[in-house]
Every structure is written in C-alpha cells, then in structure tokens.
Amino acid sequence: VYWGKIKAEKNLLNYSLFIAFFPHVLAGPISRGGSLLPQMQQPKVFDYSGVKTGLQLMAIGFFKKIAVADMLAMFIGAVHNDLQSYSALMLIFTALAYSMQLYADFSGYSDIARGCAKVLGFDIVDNFNTPFLSTSIQEFWKRWHISLSSWFMEYIYFSLGGNRKGEMRKYINL
User: Is 158 exposed, middle or buried (0-12, 13-18, 19+ CB in 10 A)?
Assistant: First the structure.
C-alpha cells in the first residue's frame, strides 16, 4: 500500500481474513496482499477439481512430513546422541540427511498449507522448486523458501538500497 502497488483494503472482514488466513500463517508460504486479497474479494463456488488438487497436494505434504522428515529425524537424532560411535563418512551422510529433513519438513508444511488453501478455493504461492536439483548456490536460494527469500529481497534488501549504492554497500545489504 505504501509503495502504491495495491490499494488499502477497506473491508474489515476481508482484511481480517487475510491476516488470519490459517493455511499460510503457521508455516508459510508468505502470501502478500496483492495476490491473496483479490481472491478473497471474489465469491467462492465449489470446485471439484480444486478440491481434488488440494487434497492431493496435502497428501504429498503429509508424506514429506511424516514418511520422510520424521523418519530422517529419528535416524539423525540417534547419530547426534552418540557422535563418537560413528565414522566420518556416516557423519557426512547424517549432515546431508539433515538438509533433506529440513527440506521435507518445510516443503511438506508448505504443500499442506497450499493444498488446504486450494480446497478452500484460494491459490497461494509455491514455496519450494526442487532446490536440490540446482546447479549453483545462487539457483539453490532462488528455489529454496521462495516466498521468504522474495520477502527479504523486497522489504529488506531493496529498502536498504540494494546494489544501487555501490559494490561495498551491496555486500553490507546482503
């Protein structure tokens, strides 16, 4: 609103729904007013296809969370509780497994939130785009927690001046 990208929401009910919209409040993705508020202003009708897609997305999210992240957490916890008993190779494998656990946890929660929103007739942004298939660190961060990264970029980095104030300032802002 401050930057003039969207108009202020005058309807208290729509604004309250946006602020308290549970599918994205707990674990993301971070939904912005420009994408979610217009959807809240439109009347909703039952959409079988949307419900089906949403339930499938939720099932994928629950699988990532329960079958992948929680199972990896048990293995990782066992190794972390007795580090001296494991070889360096096993500790490296555990570190890699931990990164997969984090991904499955965050991605799973995001898929559950997106699926739940879809069942209710809303589309919220995808938060992860297969980050482990990236070919560079820069590409990885563009694919990992997309909504948080873009939020930081827009509201922190650009607000501090981004790279417009010289090379040194760019690194300070980063």
Answer: middle
